[in-house]
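Whiteboard transcription, Tuesday session. T.W. wrote the structure tokens on the left side:
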């Protein structure tokens, strides 16, 4: 290092030091041995006696002590055969060293009086013990190791406990440890067939002697900081030990301890901690200062010089010991071929792994390194030796899977690594003892206070950049030929100034994957560093350039250059690479796309990935990368992508972003076809929706008018019915690979066909049993239904509806044990999707087959069975159920006659399914082809109520006369309010009734007249029923014939009488004389009457002859017009509601009769009717939008951002207006974000247009005066941007009752561009539709406050926030809990704690949006994760375009709320809530009258 350049190394002094030489070494060995054995033994015996008896030593003067020390010095160098003498010498010296810490009486007096000088000599003598003995047996070497362990423990204990050590003693201790390590670790270790060699003492002591050295060095740093000469000596001598794995492990052990302490005092205790083992946590002395930690950390970090040298055996072997071995050996010619260098790949991996851990620690990635710094098992270190230079070796064994052909790699990936040394290379084997596998889901977010990328790269960049290219064959343009001798050893020696790489790599003629494990770690660390780029942060251009070059080589997919571990590590750690605003990162898009194609095109990658990265997680990382680049082609379009490799003799290869569009879409479809993991499938479905929406909007903006060549890009015949969906899936898989052309995927029309076909096929083939995936597929189908195409793909729309119907049939037909809440949730979601498809493509119901399929499915959902099944369908369902249940049976056969509704037993799959099917049926009747209604999508039903109708009623004088209505309930589900008074615009005196119908699906107002002639005039003369006048008399009336009337025809007289005829006697035969008198009187009376009648007849005829025509008295006249009608009775009777059977109570049932009259005298009825009107007919959702400037963490500052336009980015306002259309809260008839201002009707009052504030940043849509609104046939969404005034709204709403609107801070008029506002429905059919006459310039409207009981509005309390971030890192500090208080909707399931509103965190979902510098937008989703919470199309990390941002955010928010309703057990569909409310009204206000009383009431007038 440059900081040591002016200091001399003490290496030579230590290696040539003679302080461990005794005077006995000058005598013959036998003489010294005899003297030592004779002297040491009694000294040791006396020492043991003195220790036990606490007696003082008899060595009382310095001269005696020094003489004994000379003998002990020689005794420590005796051969191991004299083990007892050596042990005695060790015992004596260990006892004497105790004088530095806890003196004992047995220690000689001179040593006790001044222990430091004697301790220095003792330590130097003890070095003899660590000298390897040649040709020693295994047992003796082990005994030597035991003695060395005792010496190390003693020295470590004395140094830790002593407080009197001088600097000279510390330096002596450190020099001793350096010399001992050098003696044991410098020689290359060898093994033979017989046993351990003389040098194997190093294997016994390697880890221990290194740990003592580093721990003692740390202790010395805390108590007596080593001199620069010692630091330089330490650094220089470490070069000789780098072929030992323990050196790297112990080095990282100290580095991690120091790094943990360094981060703690640099970034505070809240910074993510580097978790250490308990033993390592005690490694750092307690008295060490922060400044000392910083100094020690930096010096220890560079103690090994350049750790990348570990991947160069030719550098590691350039030491005196290796050269001496090569000269002395007869078999080894090149030192780099020594057997011990086999471990270098693993050592290099551990070195890079340790650096990677430190990089993660600085990035703020919480991690645990327990066990990271342990020695690897023997099987991971026993590696074969190379027989050729690394540049000339070929890949074999475990690495054959990397260089073998792509079609053979999978089968060869299990090849054994035990290959011959003649053909193998230095293997790159990652340790199998790694603690667990990596996962993207388990990753913690980076620390917000992390250092800049430049700072981390200044520390580790030189090593990581070089290590990332270990064994890589560089292109000539990437080699700096003038720097072959220059390599970076540390941060202080080099700063990057050029993008060209070191010339050492130029010597590689072939790609070498020997060190790919370490290279993979370096590449992964670099990817994490650059993915940690903060918003607005600048990274040096040279760093970016070198990183892009490394990514280029790491992303190679050709057989010659691919590295499985490197590629998988890069892809796994680069999820955020394309979404962090790195300058020029788009240059890597083609190479990343090629790598993604290699991974996602098949379930099993065609290379061997990193052992710690599961294939599913690798695919997930690739999917994230794909999602971040889907918007690039249509965003940059024809922008050219520069080639990262420049060849001077060749033309540069250029390609544009738009040229990658088809490749990306093909890869997306192929990955979706192959994927089996549920989470990954949902990510891909979100990407598919993004691609489809973006392409459709782009074509719409460009006004593409190219007519597609084919209506549907699938090869399935629409008229043929498939035997099973499995066969259909196989057929689509084949067609998608063979017949799908680039032209089909290049247009929205073609992609629409491919997307819907693929999703529907996979849904039926693989996803039908997985809840999350099925829900995601339904959400995609809902999104596809709303995609606008220039040329609709009608045939594919029809097939999609058929697929959805088949999905519902299959799920409903599953055996009973398979039915669960999750299954029914899938069916409900399918019905929702079916509704959207029918509404958005209303022409589908014009097709007879499609209509039949839909109505059959609706019937199945409501009743649980179909009336009749088709033969083909019966077979299909049978095949589907064959594998699941043999006992499943059809409820009827195709040959059976259809069952009628009244004959079927209602057994739906569940009430939820029945409710969903009823909603579809009602939608078909009411909304398909009629949405949006005349009053706009904000209301699906009439805006008229009783008060509005009474204002128009003839003769009405009071504003509040709801009692003029008669209320009846039909079938316990429909309330009909009948107004018998004709409306003011009805001129004809005809029976007129106005019906206000309230049902489960809304409120409808109808006016009906009983007419006998058409309403329109001048139709034809025959159509008039007016009096045509008396016809003129005719003189010629014909001939009058006098005819005598007979009782019987004349033929009767010609018939002969029979005896039977004579059986009845004649009158004369029965009359007696007495009776004859009476009979004569009677005959006289009859004759007199006849004469009188004839006289009258003649008089009348005579009078008629003289009377003029016509006679006014006898002339027929039309009756007078009736002005009083009992229209309520007529209505009920004509529609079949009024009958005796309808009024009878059902037997043995609590259900009321089919026709019930309500008690209108109870005033509570009208309040409950208003409450019923307040129950919405659609799902209602609210999205609150916030704007966060850089660094803001308080709610007050965040709310103030939207008060001015200058405080927000222009893209924010554009995004906000793309979510919906502005509406005036006071005039809005739909959902406004709060129940107190929603679902209002209009009344005639003064209208005051207030001033609209201009120049706001969105605060005008805070819900007090305006909101942004969007609605479709099933959902209403209000987008509210809270402002500081929202606090006033919150406080006022908390003080008001439910029937009062919150106080507003200011009033604003309606915006210029708004949707058509609600109007009074005209009852005059002769006038064209338009605004009613009541809405004139002088007219006005006002809000009517309605008191409502919201007990029926039950369900999940889901809050959705959309947060716009100027700085992406602020999403971690967003104060969501503080802002919940300003997002009340009146429906919140709140609890109060100390006056504060509490909320359930699991029901809060946040969509963070960050605008990237390239014009795209990065999304981040945050919320409680449950089994159904991962709604799409937007997912975390997705990058979307400007044109599709608003649409996708809206869809995601709706899908989040919809999933929460499916998950909630409290949720009830709107029409069910309305139906229950109607039943509640019936129970409370039913008139309990008899049948006669009921009919009597119908004939009575309504009391006014």
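and on the right, the sequence the group agreed on:
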């Amino acid at each position: 290092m440059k900081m040591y350049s002016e200091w001399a190394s003490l290496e030579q002094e230590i290696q040539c030091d003679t302080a461990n030489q005794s005077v006995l070494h000058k005598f013959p060995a036998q003489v010294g041995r005899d003297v030592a054995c004779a002297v040491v033994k009694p000294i040791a015996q006396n020492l043991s006696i003195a220790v036990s008896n606490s007696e003082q030593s008899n060595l009382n003067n310095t001269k005696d002590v020094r003489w004994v020390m000379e003998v002990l010095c020689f005794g420590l160098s005796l051969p191991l055969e004299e083990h007892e003498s050596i042990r005695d010498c060790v015992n004596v010296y260990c006892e004497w060293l105790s004088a530095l810490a806890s003196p004992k009486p047995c220690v000689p007096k001179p040593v006790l009086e001044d222990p430091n000088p004697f301790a220095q000599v003792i330590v130097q003598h003890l070095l003899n013990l660590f000298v390897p003995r040649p040709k020693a047996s295994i047992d003796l070497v082990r005994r030597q190791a035991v003695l060395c362990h005792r010496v190390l423990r003693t020295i470590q204990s004395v140094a830790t406990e002593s407080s009197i050590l001088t600097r000279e003693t510390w330096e002596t201790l450190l020099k001793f440890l350096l010399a001992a390590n050098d003696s044991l670790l410098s020689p290359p270790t060898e093994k033979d067939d017989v046993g351990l060699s003389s040098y194997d003492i190093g294997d016994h002591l390697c880890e221990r002697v290194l740990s003592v050295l580093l721990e003692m060095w740390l202790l010395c740093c805390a108590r007596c900081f080593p001199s620069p000469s010692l630091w330089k000596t330490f650094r220089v001598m470490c070069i000789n030990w780098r072929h030992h794995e323990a050196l790297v492990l112990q080095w990282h052990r100290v580095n991690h301890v120091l790094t943990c302490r360094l981060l703690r005092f640099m970034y505070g205790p809240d910074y993510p901690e580097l978790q250490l083992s308990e033993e390592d946590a005690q490694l750092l002395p307690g008295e060490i200062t922060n400044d000392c930690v910083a100094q020690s950390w930096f010096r220890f970090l560079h103690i090994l010089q350049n750790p990348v040298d570990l991947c160069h055996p030719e550098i590691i072997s350039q030491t005196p010991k290796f050269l001496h071995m090569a000269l002395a050996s007869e078999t080894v010619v090149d030192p780099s071929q020594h057997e011990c260098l086999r471990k270098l790949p693993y050592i290099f991996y551990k070195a890079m792994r340790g650096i990677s851990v430190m990089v993660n620690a600085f990035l703020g990635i919480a991690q645990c390194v327990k066990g990271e710094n342990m020695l690897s098992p023997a099987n991971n270190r026993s590696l074969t030796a190379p027989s050729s230079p690394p540049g000339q070796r070929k890949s074999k064994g475990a690495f054959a899977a990397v260089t073998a052909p792509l079609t053979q790699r999978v089968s060869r990936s299990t090849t054994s690594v035990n290959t011959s040394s003649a053909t193998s290379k230095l293997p790159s084997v990652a340790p199998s003892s790694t603690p667990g596998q990596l996962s993207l889901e388990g990753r913690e977010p980076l620390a917000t206070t992390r250092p800049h990328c430049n700072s981390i790269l200044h520390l580790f960049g030189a090593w990581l950049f070089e290590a990332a290219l270990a064994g890589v064959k560089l292109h000539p343009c990437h080699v700096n030929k003038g720097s072959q001798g220059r390599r970076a050893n540390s941060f202080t020696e080099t700063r990057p100034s050029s993008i060209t790489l070191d010339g050492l790599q130029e010597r590689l003629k072939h790609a070498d994957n020997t060190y790919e494990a370490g290279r993979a770690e370096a590449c992964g660390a670099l990817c994490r560093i650059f993915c940690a780029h903060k918003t607005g942060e600048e990274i040096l251009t040279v760093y970016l350039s070198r990183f892009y070059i490394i990514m280029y080589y790491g992303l190679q997919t050709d057989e010659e250059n691919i590295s499985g571990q490197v590629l998988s590590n890069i892809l796994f750690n680069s999820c955020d690479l394309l979404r962090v605003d790195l300058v020029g990162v788009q240059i890597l898009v083609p190479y990343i796309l090629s790598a993604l194609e290699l991974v996602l095109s098949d379930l099993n990658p065609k290379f061997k990935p990193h052992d710690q990265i599961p294939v599913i997680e690798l695919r997930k990382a690739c999917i994230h990368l794909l999602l971040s680049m889907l918007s690039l082609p249509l965003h940059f379009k024809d922008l050219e992508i520069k080639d990262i490799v420049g060849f001077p003799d060749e033309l540069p290869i250029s390609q544009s972003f738009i040229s990658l569009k088809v490749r990306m879409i093909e890869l997306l479809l192929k990955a979706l076809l192959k994927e089996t993991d549920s989470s990954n499938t949902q990510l891909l479905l979100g990407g598919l929706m993004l691609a489809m929406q973006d392409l459709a909007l782009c074509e719409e903006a460009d006004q593409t008018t190219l007519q597609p060549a084919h209506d549907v890009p699938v090869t399935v015949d629409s008229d043929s019915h498939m035997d099973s969906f499995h066969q259909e899936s196989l057929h689509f898989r084949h067609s998608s690979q063979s017949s799908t052309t680039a032209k089909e995927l290049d247009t929205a029309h073609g992609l629409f066909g491919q997307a819907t076909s693929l999703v529907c096929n996979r849904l039926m083939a693989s996803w039908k049993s997985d809840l999350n995936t099925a829900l995601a597929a339904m959400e995609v189908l809902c999104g596809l239904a709303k995609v606008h195409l220039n040329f609709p793909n009608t045939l594919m729309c029809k097939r999609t509806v058929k697929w959805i119907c088949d999905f519902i049939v299959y799920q409903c037909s599953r055996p009973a044990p398979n039915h669960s809440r999750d299954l029914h949730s899938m069916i409900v979601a399918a019905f929702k999707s079916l509704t959207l498809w029918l509404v958005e493509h209303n022409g589908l119901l014009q097709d007879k087959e499609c209509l039949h399929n839909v109505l059959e499915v609706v019937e199945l959902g409501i009743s649980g069975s179909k009336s009749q099944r088709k033969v083909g369908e019966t077979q299909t369902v049978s095949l589907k159920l064959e594998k699941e249940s043999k006992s499943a049976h059809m409820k009827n056969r195709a040959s059976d006659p259809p069952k009628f509704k009244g004959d079927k037993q209602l057994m739906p799959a569940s009430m939820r399914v029945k409710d969903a099917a009823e909603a579809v049926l009602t939608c078909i009747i009411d909304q398909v082809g009629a949405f949006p209604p005349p009053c706009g999508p904000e209301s699906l039903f009439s805006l008229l109520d009783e008060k509005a109708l009474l204002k128009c009623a003839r003769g009405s004088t009071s504003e509040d006369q709801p009692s003029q209505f008669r209320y009846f309930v039909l079938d316990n589900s429909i309330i009909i309010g009948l107004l018998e008074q004709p409306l003011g615009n009805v001129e004809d005196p005809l029976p007129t009734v106005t019906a206000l119908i309230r049902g489960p699906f809304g409120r409808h107002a109808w006016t009906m007249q009983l007419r006998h002639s058409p309403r329109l005039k001048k139709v034809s003369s025959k159509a008039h029923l007016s009096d045509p006048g008396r016809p003129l008399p005719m003189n010629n009336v014909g001939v009058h014939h006098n005819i005598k009337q007979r009782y019987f025809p004349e033929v009767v007289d010609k018939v002969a009488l029979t005896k039977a005829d004579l059986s009845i006697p004649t009158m004369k035969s029965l009359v007696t004389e007495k009776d004859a008198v009476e009979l004569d009187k009677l005959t006289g009376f009859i004759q007199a009457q006849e004469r009188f009648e004839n006289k009258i007849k003649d008089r009348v005829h005579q009078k008629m002859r003289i009377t003029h025509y016509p006679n006014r008295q006898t002339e027929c006249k039309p009756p007078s017009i009736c002005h009083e009608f009992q229209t309520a009775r007529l209505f009920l009777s004509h529609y079949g509601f009024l009958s005796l059977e309808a009024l009878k109570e059902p037997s043995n049932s609590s259900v009321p009769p089919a026709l019930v009259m309500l008690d209108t005298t109870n005033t509570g009825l009208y309040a409950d009717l208003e409450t019923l009107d307040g129950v919405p007919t659609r799902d209602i959702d609210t999205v609150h939008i916030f704007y966060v400037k850089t660094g803001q963490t308080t709610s007050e500052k965040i709310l103030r951002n939207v008060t001015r336009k200058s405080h927000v980015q222009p893209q924010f306002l554009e995004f906000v207006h793309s979510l919906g259309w502005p509406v005036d809260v006071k005039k809005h008839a739909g959902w406004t974000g709060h129940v107190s201002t929603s679902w209002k009707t209009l009344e005639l009052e003064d209208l005051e247009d207030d001033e609209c504030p201009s120049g706001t940043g969105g605060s005008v849509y805070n819900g007090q005066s305006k909101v942004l609104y969007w609605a479709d046939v099933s959902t209403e969404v209000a987008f509210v941007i809270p402002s500081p005034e929202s606090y006033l709204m919150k406080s006022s709403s908390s003080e008001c009752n439910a029937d009062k609107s919150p106080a507003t801070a200011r009033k604003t008029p309606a915006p210029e561009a708004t949707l058509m506002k609600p109007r009074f429905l005209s009852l005059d059919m002769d006038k064209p539709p338009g605004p009613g006459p009541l809405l004139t310039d002088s007219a006005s409207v006002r809000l009517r406050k309605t008191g409502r009981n919201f007990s029926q509005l039950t369900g999940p309390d889901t809050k959705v926030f959309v947060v716009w971030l100027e700085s992406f890192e602020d999403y971690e500090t967003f104060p969501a809990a503080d802002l919940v208080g300003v997002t009340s909707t009146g429906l919140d399931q709140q609890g109060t704690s100390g006056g504060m509103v509490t909320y359930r965190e699991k029901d809060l979902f946040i969509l963070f949006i960050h605008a990237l510098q390239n014009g795209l937008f990065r999304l981040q989703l945050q919320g409680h994760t449950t089994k159904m919470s991962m709604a799409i199309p937007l997912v975390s990390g997705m990058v979307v375009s400007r044109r599709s941002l608003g649409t996708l955010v809206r869809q995601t928010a709706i899908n989040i709320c919809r999933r929460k309703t499916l998950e909630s057990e409290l949720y009830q569909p709107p029409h069910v809530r309305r139906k229950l409310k109607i039943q509640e009204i019936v129970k409370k206000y039913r008139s309990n009258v008899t049948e006669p009383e009921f009919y009597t009431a119908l004939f009575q007038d309504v009391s006014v």
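Someone added at the bottom: Residues 1073-1106 form the longest helix (34 residues).
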